[in-house]
């Protein structure tokens, strides 16, 4: 029975990962196609945030996802959750600008620098120190992105800066999302819905002032922008795929270990790069591919180093209890100590 249960769980994880890769690859390719014909990254972001807001509520209720508590203090709400939503739409906008300006393969190679931003921001904000293995794993990431940048045939400075800003934004979201999930106990999918809805409300005035004005009157053509049925269809599909990608990613995260998820995410990036090169056919050189490979391998090394660091911290947390056991040595204390150790292991 246990073997059958494990087999079913493995098949579920495998199916979700394959679906995640396909949806993510399709989403990036279609996003590039949309922006090539419809160069309005803010509107693309608006469609994606609207999709999260509209689809998530009914779907989560149907799925039985628990509702979040409404007793979150307003001070906490404005101090952490609102800035998270602000960061979400800013990161999404810059991510779309990067895909618009540079090839998808290069944009995702630059996004491989997320561990670098995570380490730096965690050190500055949380005062969190890392092991030397973690710091060393950042070298191939930085070197790989540098090689890919120097050899990118379709290089654009705005695209590079936008990709870096988006990556930093996503890193900040990862850091503070973990804190919000821990402090409030909100379900991660409900948090996605809340952030998407807040980001939409905050982003709406910006979109109305900037993109909608240009859509209603483009000074180049001297009139409103004509949106073809093809662009409408691509925008709709892009919004659906982006929402579905978020759902699958959170579902995978909820059933696997952090290391497995990190490795699966890095593998997904390789898949997206390969699909974009094959489908969109942007030219690359051998050195360019070498840089991409170095960056992705660096991400895998970083994930392994972080896993080793977490395991070492767990062992250190348990050592004092075992020392006390050895020092006292009574049977009654050993029973209590074992119970406490078990609880601590469960809590970790």
Please explain how this structure is put together:
The chain is an all-alpha fold. Helix content is 84%, strand content 0%. The chain has 13 helices and no strands. Helix 3 packs across helix 8 (188-209) and helix 11 runs antiparallel to helix 12. The radius of gyration is 23 Å and the shape is globular.
Topology at a glance:
Blueprint: H1 2-37, H2 41-63, H3 74-101, H4 104-111, H5 114-125, H6 132-151, H7 157-184, H8 188-209, H9 211-216, H10 229-255, H11 258-280, H12 286-328, H13 331-347
Helix pairs in contact: 1-10, 1-11, 2-3, 2-8, 2-10, 3-7, 3-8, 4-7, 4-11, 4-12, 5-7, 6-12, 11-12, 12-13
Structural class: mainly alpha
- Share of helical residues: over 70%
Overall strand count: 0
CA-based gyration radius: 23 Å
* First-residue to last-residue Cα separation: 27 Å
Low-confidence stretches: 329-348
Sheet with most strands:
none
Structurally, how many domains make up the residues? Answer: 1
Provide a count of the helices.
13
Q: Which whole number gives the mean pLDDT?
A: 82
């Amino acid at each position: 029975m246990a073997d059958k249960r494990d087999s079913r769980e493995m098949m579920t994880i495998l199916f979700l990962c394959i679906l995640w890769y396909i949806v993510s690859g399709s989403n990036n390719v279609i996003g590039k196609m949309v922006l090539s014909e419809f160069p309005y990254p803010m509107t693309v972001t608006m469609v994606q945030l609207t999709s999260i807001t509209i689809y998530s509520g009914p779907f989560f209720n149907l799925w039985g996802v628990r509702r979040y508590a409404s007793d979150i203090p307003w001070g906490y709400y404005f101090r952490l959750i609102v800035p998270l939503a602000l960061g979400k739409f800013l990161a999404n906008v810059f991510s779309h600008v990067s895909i618009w300006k540079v090839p998808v393969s290069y944009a995702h190679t630059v996004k491989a620098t997320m561990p670098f931003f995570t380490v730096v921001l965690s050190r500055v904000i949380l005062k969190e120190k890392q092991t030397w293995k973690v710091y060393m794993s950042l070298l191939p990431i930085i070197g790989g992105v540098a090689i890919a940048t120097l050899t990118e045939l379709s290089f654009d400075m705005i695209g590079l800066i936008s990709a870096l800003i988006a990556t930093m934004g996503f890193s900040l979201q990862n850091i503070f999302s973990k804190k919000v999930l821990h402090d409030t106990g909100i379900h991660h999918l409900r948090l996605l819905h809340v952030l998407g809805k807040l980001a939409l409300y905050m982003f709406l005035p910006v979109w109305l002032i900037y993109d909608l004005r240009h859509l209603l009157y483009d000074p180049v053509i001297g009139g409103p922008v004509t949106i073809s049925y093809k662009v409408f269809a691509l925008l709709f599909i892009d919004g659906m795929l982006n929402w579905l990608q978020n759902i699958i990613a959170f579902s995978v995260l909820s059933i696997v270990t952090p290391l497995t998820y990190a490795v699966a995410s890095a593998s997904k990036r390789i898949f997206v790069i390969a699909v974009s090169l094959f489908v969109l056919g942007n030219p690359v050189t051998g050195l360019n591919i070498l840089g991409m490979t170095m960056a992705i391998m660096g991400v895998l090394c970083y994930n392994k180093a972080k896993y080793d660091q977490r395991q070492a911290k767990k062992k250190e947390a348990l050592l004092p209890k075992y020392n006390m056991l050895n020092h006292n040595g009574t049977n009654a204390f050993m029973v209590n100590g074992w119970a406490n150790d078990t609880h601590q292991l469960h809590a970790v």
